[in-house]
Write a structure and sequence with these properties.
Blueprint: H1 2-19, H2 23-34, H3 45-57, H4 69-76, H5 80-91, H6 95-113, H7 119-125, H8 131-142, H9 146-162
Length: 163
């Protein structure tokens, strides 16, 4: 039943987008209207973005598997609503996707820099709760498993080193 319901919903969405391609634009406008009354009016947005980047790059807070919007907002000096609006409006994605992408970028780097480290330990070190959540997120973002990514990039680096 669930598979049928999901398939039906996907089919309806596909037909709707084919029939009315402007729906995506309407959805984008609706998301922007959500923040019609901005919570960032009295916030130095550029400074807040710099603090966010610093916490993610230097402090590597994405490594905390329990990282929440409220916790990160506190570290950046904003309310949860303000940080949510900042990430959505300025970075074009939601909080969960933002953190997941930061974790995946860190994992890609670690997979290549530490070839002796297990894939599981790379996933756990970069903030994923389990091997399965790491594999699913990594494959969704890159189109390949972490092990395949490491092997394909390792071969490419080896070929470049020989040239």
């Amino acid at each position: 039943f669930y598979a049928f319901a999901i398939g039906l919903a996907f089919a309806i969405l596909t037909v709707a987008l084919i029939a009315k391609p402007e729906l995506l634009g309407d959805l984008r406008e609706a998301a922007q209207a959500r923040y019609g009354v901005s919570t960032l009016r009295n916030v130095d947005v550029e400074a807040a973005l710099a603090r966010l980047e610093s916490r993610m790059t230097e402090a590597k807070v994405y490594r905390d598997e329990n990282l929440s919007l409220e916790t990160l907002a506190e570290l950046v000096g904003l309310s949860g609503h303000q940080l949510s609006e900042l990430i959505n409006s300025r970075l074009g994605m939601g909080f969960s996707r933002y953190v997941r992408e930061r974790r995946i970028e860190a994992a890609k780097e670690l997979l290549l820099k530490a070839p002796g480290q297990s894939v599981l330990s790379v996933g756990l070190e970069t903030g994923f709760r389990s091997q399965s959540s790491f594999y699913v997120a990594f494959k969704e973002a890159t189109g390949q498993s972490p092990g395949d990514f490491r092997r394909s990039r390792g071969r490419a680096a080896g070929v470049q080193a020989l040239e």
